[in-house]
Design brief:
303 residues, alpha/beta, twelve-stranded parallel sheet, seven-stranded parallel sheet, 7 helices, 25% strand
Length: 303
């Protein structure tokens, strides 16, 4: 859904007038100031996606009404009044009939400085977009397909990306701290200077891409796979269990104060240049590391 502040402002004004609401009355229904509504309608600012969803409920339109490519005329006000006699008293927290069957399509957008915090039920793909300096905090993005995106300087803190698929994308300088990436799949993507602190990467798979300069403090790594991935300037700490490193290239990688259990290392390039500092491994992991010609200095074999 392509969004433009001037176009959205015109559509808000048109829809508001068709249902005979003043700017003040509309502002009251969504708990903002009339001045803010005025700025929207003049194209000086733009509602966040949650507020757009509320506006769609009030106007009884599909969310795609706000898209530049949407040209369908609104229902005549008299027809609205007959089909929705208590329309002005509608509880905006409940779903209208139009809302109940809505599928959000957020693809092919140019999103910048937008606030998607708390976003839920995003069932469609969110692909082929440029997404910069946006907020997705506490959002439910589970099962989402993110394909061919450029995602930069965004905050996904505490969001749920379980079973998500990030494909052929560029992720740069994003905050993923305390996110759940359980069983997520990163494929053919470049991930750089992102913060994965306190994130859950259980079952996550990184396949055929680059993983560089990322913060991994207290990151949960269990059944996590790095396959055919270039890993550089990364420090792995804490407990690493049942993980898989295969066909990776390593540059300036350090395992520090890590307990590494039942973890598979095979066909990795430059593993001998990886630094291990105060690490403890089980016998199986030790055998994989030794066979892969790792520098075993700094490694203690667990009993």
């Amino acid at each position: 859904m392509m969004l433009n502040s001037k176009s959205i402002g015109n559509k808000i004004a048109e829809a508001r007038k068709r249902i005979n609401l003043s700017q003040a009355e509309l502002a009251l229904q969504i708990s903002i100031s009339p001045q803010a509504v005025g700025k929207w309608e003049r194209g000086e600012s733009m509602p966040d996606i949650i507020t757009l969803n509320r506006l769609a409920e009030i106007f009884t339109v599909d969310l795609n009404y706000f898209s530049e490519s949407f040209h369908k005329n609104l229902t005549d006000p008299k027809e609205q009044e007959s089909s929705h006699p208590n329309h002005h008293l509608t509880n905006i927290g409940s779903k209208s009939e139009n809302q109940a069957g809505r599928h959000w399509n957020m693809s092919k957008g140019n999103w910048e400085n937008a606030d998607f915090s708390g976003l839920k039920n995003l069932e469609e793909q969110f692909s082929s977009s440029n997404i910069k300096n946006c907020k997705f905090t506490n959002a439910d993005l589970s099962g989402l397909i993110l394909s061919k995106n450029n995602i930069e300087l965004c905050d996904f803190s505490s969001s749920n990306l379980t079973n998500s698929k990030i494909q052929s994308s560029n992720l740069l300088k994003n905050q993923f701290n305390q996110c759940s990436f359980r069983d997520a799949n990163f494929s053919r993507s470049n991930i750089g200077q992102c913060n994965f602190s306190d994130a859950d990467l259980t079952g996550a798979r990184f396949d055929t891409g680059y993983f560089e300069h990322n913060e991994m403090t207290n990151t949960l790594l269990k059944c996590t796979s790095f396959i055919n991935t270039g890993v550089s300037d990364v420090i792995f700490e804490g407990r690493i269990e049942d993980c898989h490193f295969e066909g990776c290239g390593f540059y300036k990688v350090k395992f520090q104060r890590a307990i590494i259990l039942n973890t598979f290392f095979k066909y990795n390039r430059k593993l001998k240049k990886v630094t291990f500092v105060d690490c403890k491994v089980d016998s199986l992991t030790y055998a994989f590391l030794k066979n892969n010609e790792a520098n075993l200095t700094g490694i203690t074999l667990l009993d």
